[in-house]
Amino acid sequence: MFLRTSRRFFASAAGAAAAAAAKLPVRNDFTHCVIGGGVIGLSIARQLSKRPGTSTLLLEQHSSLGTETSSRNSEVIHAGLYYPPNSHKTTLCKAGSELLYALCEKYQIPHRRTGKWIIAQDEGQLESLERLHAHASSLDIPTGWLTPEQVRVREPAVRAKAGVLESPLTGIVDSHAFMTFLHGDFESAGGDVARGARVVDVQSIGMGGDMGYRLTITDGTSTIATNEGEFTISTDTLINAAGLSAISISNLLLQQTHPERVLAPYYCKGTYFSYSSSSPKVSTLLYPAPVKGFAGLGTHLTMDMAGRIRFGPDVEWIQDPRDLKPNESRMAAAVAAIKTYLPGLREEALAPDYCGVRPKLAPEGMGGVGEVDFVIQEEEGYGGFVNLLGIESPGLTSSLAIAEMVEGILYK
């Protein structure tokens, strides 16, 4: 069944139906409709809901908000070290990090500036860190080298044979508390949420959406596809922030007149591993040196707000984004990767915990970190339709800056 949080949702749709029956001019049900109730969709909906004289609807296909990539990640506030200078990933991560820290401090959302160590074990990895340091310096992102003595004093359990590059701006955030705040602030501004609402069709109204968009929606919580319970809503502007489903949503509209712009989605699964031992004790995020062309940042050590250590994610390309079952066969490779920088790891305390899936715009071998940027654009020929595709890491960090960017696209 559809789970809605505001009576105004019904009132607007009923008002449009009554106007149509009376053959009166029909205005759209909403000013803004955002598809996708993860951290990106919530941030955008919250931003747009604050514009005077507008109405904003947020659609989420699941029965709860933020249950896909937004809640299945490392919860890291990134500094923006890895991406090209003029990319969305760099500019939005840098801006988003400042906005996120400020918001968390203002509203007491649990977070902590833990800092992050990027670790080299040989000369080749050290050269990679030197390039990363030079790149960060060119972007005015602070990084610094640690001496072997500093490493031993601060984190005696860590092995760093060749060197450590520190990122002091990196931290962690309670992503669930952050999304709870965004949801509450959105509704306080008059926004509407429809949960269990899967978009199955998108049509432009008028030429190129100049009169808006009409969406057909069905029960997203049902495992059986059926027309029963379908309804439609109309909106002046449409924002596709559907995460793992974003390409499918984009294709619903673009395939009608621009089949050459239809895209294929790719999915990269990452397994996270829990750690039940209190030894070795670490208080800093630990990352291996980045590998060019790799689809992730390596199996790294992060922690939650309670200080519990976890490792991951690894990289596993999959066909089905619903494949969220941890795979025991990933354990051996994870242990080997972790022991390069944490030799005292107690293998018996490590266990597969949960999985997350990254939405990718390029297939295996072509989607390395820093090689594929976010797509955030108003689609040519579709005024008021903003597409957000391939929003993976650093999406959580960038979310508030992405929201400001989308508002700027719509209102220029």
Automatic annotation (TrEMBL):
Which is one GO molecular function term here? (S)-2-hydroxyglutarate dehydrogenase activity
In Pfam terms, one family for this protein is DAO
Q: Which residues cross the membrane?
A: none
Cofactor(s) of this protein: FAD
Q: Which InterPro entries match?
A: FAD-dep_OxRdtase (IPR006076), FAD/NAD-bd_sf (IPR036188)
Q: What Gene3D superfamilies does the database record attribute to this sequence?
A: D-Amino Acid Oxidase, subunit A, domain 2 (3.30.9.10), FAD/NAD(P)-binding domain (3.50.50.60)
Question: Residue ranges of the FAD dependent oxidoreductase domain?
Answer: 33-406
EC no. given is 1.1.99.2
What domain of life does the native source organism fall in?
A: Eukaryota
- Does Transcription count among this protein's keywords? no
Keywords, in A-Z order: FAD, Flavoprotein, Oxidoreductase
Q: Which reaction does it catalyse?
A: (S)-2-hydroxyglutarate + A = 2-oxoglutarate + AH2
Does the keyword field hold Ribonucleoprotein?
Answer: no
- Family to which the UniProt record says this protein belongs: Belongs to the L2HGDH family.
User: What name does the UniProt record give this protein?
Assistant: L-2-hydroxyglutarate dehydrogenase, mitochondrial
**What lineage does the source organism belong to?**
Eukaryota, Fungi, Dikarya, Ascomycota, Pezizomycotina
